[in-house]
Amino acid sequence: MSNKLDINEHCLMVLSLFTRGFSTSYYIREVCRLLPISHGTAQSVLTHLEEKGVLSSAIKGKIRTFSLSRTDTARQYLVFTEVYKRLLLLERKPFIGEVLYKVIPFISGCAAVYGSVAKGTEHEDSDLDLFIAGTCDKEGVERISRIFGIEINLKVYPQDLFARAFGTDPLLKEVLSDHVIIHDPDYLITTVVV
Questions:
Q1: Residue range 144-189, pLDDT digits in tens
Q2: What pairs with residue 183 in β-bridges?
Q3: In the chain, helix, strand, coil percent, each to 5?
Q4: At the topology level of CATH, where does 9-68 sit?
Q5: pLDDT for 194 beyond 70
Q6: Neighbour count for residue 119 (Cβ, 10 Å)
Q7: In this structure, how many other beta carbons lie within 10 angstroms of the beta carbon of residue 193?
Q8: Rounded to an integer, what is the distance from CA 117 to the centroid of its chain?
């Protein structure tokens, strides 16, 4: 047995696609269109992740599509992918990283950035949209918002409501389609990938 985890940045980029809603299927050419990777690389990565039990494939007509497996291995790879996405955000937007570092102590539960910052389409005057499945000290977050001079919009759902509504609630669909988890990715992944 190897003591080396056989995963690279291409794998994490591809897995990031599958975190967009967690139920989307992709075919090889679609992955190439959405990511800056070649057809051969996409095919190799998708096949590798299928061999690991992270993805499964199905043939629809003449097209092979890939989707997330509902296994513990897939869940662990997705948690790793969420950490990767958070690191990318922190490198791209260090100021946002500082704000989030100060906000996290006021959060109990899973928290995710969504909206323009998560999509990478934010402007200089964009606000910071935070979704929380759990609870938070709203006054503490508002204090951080004033100190850093950035508007922080909070959407807070109790965890039991999140668990019941993630498949039907329009806000939760938006959050799950483009997000960066900043606290407790295990909860979200375990709840969504059943």
A1: 999 999 999 999 999 999 988 878 899 999 999 999 999 999 999 9
A2: 111
A3: 55, 20, 25
A4: Arc Repressor Mutant, subunit A (1.10.10)
A5: no
A6: 13
A7: 19
A8: 13
